[in-house]
């Protein structure tokens, strides 16, 4: 069964955390799909993955960049999984339910990352948490500690 994790960002912004999560996932041999709510946000994430480090980049693509299955990381605003990703990362309040209704069972893990300093993202994550718990799905809540490490809270 697909694990569903909620990552509560507090000490570091998404732009700092996301590349690290993607690097670790690729290191496990997992392909990754990153879903945002708008093409403008995907543009920013596209740039981030190319430039987050002076010594490295994360190879990725979007629709229109050629064969999506060849992309180790795929950026999207939809619920498709054309690169056969094992990990789905949802940012900026992207909805989990459509992913689970579609190809959700194809993932080893689905993670929604939300900014604990943004009231609307926090409320949206809480609503999604409650919805998934009501459906009886196994969900786990992780909070970012002071040093930036993830601490399992529930």
Uncertain stretches: none
CATH topology-level fold name: Rossmann fold
Mean pLDDT, rounded to whole units?
Answer: 92
Strand element count: 7
The radius of gyration computed from the alpha-carbon positions, rounded to a whole number of angstroms, is 15 Å
What is the distance, rounded to the nearest whole angstrom, between the alpha carbons of the first and last residues?
18 Å
Per CATH, the architecture is: 3-Layer(aba) Sandwich
Give helix and strand order, one letter per element, not per position. Answer: EHEHEEHEHEE
The biggest sheet, with number of strands, parallel, antiparallel or mixed sense and barrel status, is: 7 strands, mixed
Spell out the CATH superfamily.
Answer: DNA polymerase III subunit chi
Protein model, in words:
This protein is an alpha/beta fold. It has one domain (3-152): DNA polymerase III subunit chi (Rossmann fold), CATH 3.40.50.10110. The chain contains four helices and seven strands; from the N terminus they run βαβαββαβαββ. The chain has helices at 14-27, 39-51, 97-101, 119-134; strands at 3-9, 32-35, 73-76, 87-90, 109-115, 139-144, 150-152. The chain has a seven-stranded mixed beta sheet with strand order 3-2-4-5-1-6-7, sandwiched between helices. The two termini are 18 Å apart. The model has no long low-confidence stretch (mean pLDDT 92).
């Amino acid at each position: 069964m697909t694990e569903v994790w909620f990552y509560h960002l507090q000490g570091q912004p998404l732009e700092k955390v996301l590349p690290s999560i993607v690097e670790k996932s690729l290191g496990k041999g997992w392909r990754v799909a990153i879903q945002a709510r708008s093409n403008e946000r995907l543009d920013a994430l596209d740039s981030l993955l190319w430039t987050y480090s002076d010594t490295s980049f994360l190879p990725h693509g979007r629709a229109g960049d050629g064969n999506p299955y060849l992309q180790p990381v795929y950026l999207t605003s939809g619920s498709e999984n054309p690169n056969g990703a094992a990990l789905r990362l949802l940012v900026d309040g992207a909805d989990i339910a459509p992913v689970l209704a579609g190809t959700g069972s194809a993932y080893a893990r689905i993670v929604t990352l939300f900014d604990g300093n943004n009231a609307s993202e926090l409320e949206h994550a809480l609503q999604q948490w409650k919805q998934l718990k009501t459906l009886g799905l196994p969900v786990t809540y992780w909070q970012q500690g002071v040093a930036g490490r993830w601490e399992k809270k529930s």
